[in-house]
Amino acid sequence: MTATIPFEHITVLREELLDSLGLTHGDYAVDCTAGGGGHTQGLLERVGKAGKVIAFDRDPWAQDVLQKRFPAELANGQLELIAKPFSEIHAELVKRDWVGKVQGLCADIGVSSPQLDAAERGFSFAKDGPLDMRMDQTQGITATDIVNEWSVPDLTRLFRDYGEDPQARRIAQAIERERAKKPFERTLDLADLIAQSVHYKERSRKHPATRVFQALRIEVNGELRELEALLNDVGSSLKPLGRCAIISFHSLEDRLIKNAFRALAEGHMKHIGKSLPFTAAQLDELKKYTIIKPFPKIPGDIELNANPRSRSAKLRVIEKKGE
Ligand SMILES: C[S@@+](CC[C@H](N)C(=O)[O-])C[C@H]1O[C@@H](n2cnc3c(N)ncnc32)[C@H](O)[C@@H]1O
């Protein structure tokens, strides 16, 4: 894997996330989004040589970096890397007989700084590159496919639902007009078109293409579907008193996490119906999880100053109750 820039990522909420998992020597831990290995390193230290960590990342560049960072831990079996999407967590835990045995499960959702900064990955509206945006460039559709092929109503829905862009329709129509002349291939062609076609405050700190690029990235990588799949498997993965900690960076993800954790902690009361007498089995299902306070945790001033990209990070933690 050759990259045009070095892989430099500052780990967000590192100590807060690690402290929240309650790990001790000998535990099993899972990092769903290993990236440059900042959280993975902390997991390894906390579970010690008697423990084990498995770490997912779907990006071959991250896999390459992780192989180089942890040669000893990979050689002695303390760490195992999984080059797959984290939605496959359940199958991977089954293979290792880890279901219901994980003490610490963490995820730091989204893309890493080097993925964003490498122009050739196509995530950035500020750098010219192919309009790609795939975390795993061996798989799936690219942002180019979506921008050139989707209908105006579908693009509008995408930009509105995943980008929360109030000018979704106007942008979708501008894209349709432009691609009739020449199909989109480059990030800056799209970013410039958006800047020309929307009303925005000149002095706004956000580039006018921010929301559309976010929406395309979420769709290309199936990010919300991935997160939903992971949230579904939190309960079966953890051991009693095991914890799951997830960092997210935008409101769509945070809402999914907040609601999923609430459903686990409240025992799906809504589905059972409050006025009915509960059977023993139903009561058993109630309130098996505790949301850890304070929630959500956000970066403090020192971290924000050192790493402005951490500004929208939110950490939520849930614990499975003891038996
Ligand atoms: C924010 S970075 C994680 C950084 C890491 N915590 C660190 O300290 O270096 C997110 C990483 O997760 C990976 N990723 C995102 N979604 C994924 C998914 N559904 N399955 C597997 N890896 C994913 C990305 O490729 C990226 O490397």
Describe this structure in words.
The chain has a seven-stranded mixed sheet with strand order 3-2-1-4-5-7-6, with helices on both faces. The chain is of the alpha/beta class. Helix 1 runs parallel beside helix 2 and helix 8 packs across helix 11. It has 16 helices and seven strands. The chain folds into two domains: 197 residues, 3-Layer(aba) Sandwich (Rossmann fold); 85 residues, Orthogonal Bundle (DNA polymerase, domain 1). The mean pLDDT is 92. Bound molecules: S-adenosylmethionine (SAM). The site of S-adenosylmethionine has 21 residues, from helix 2.
Please outline what is shown here.
It contains 16 helices and 7 strands.
Largest sheet: 7 strands, mixed
Indicate how many domains the architecture comprises. Answer: 2
The total of beta strands comes to 7
List the bound ligands: S-adenosylmethionine
Order of helices and strands: HEHEHHEHEHHHHHHHEHHHEHE
* β-sheet strand percentage: 5-15%
Rg to the nearest angstrom? Answer: 21 Å
CATH fold title of the largest domain: Rossmann fold
Going by CATH, the architecture of the largest domain would be 3-Layer(aba) Sandwich
Count of helical regions: 16
User: Termini distance?
Assistant: 46 Å
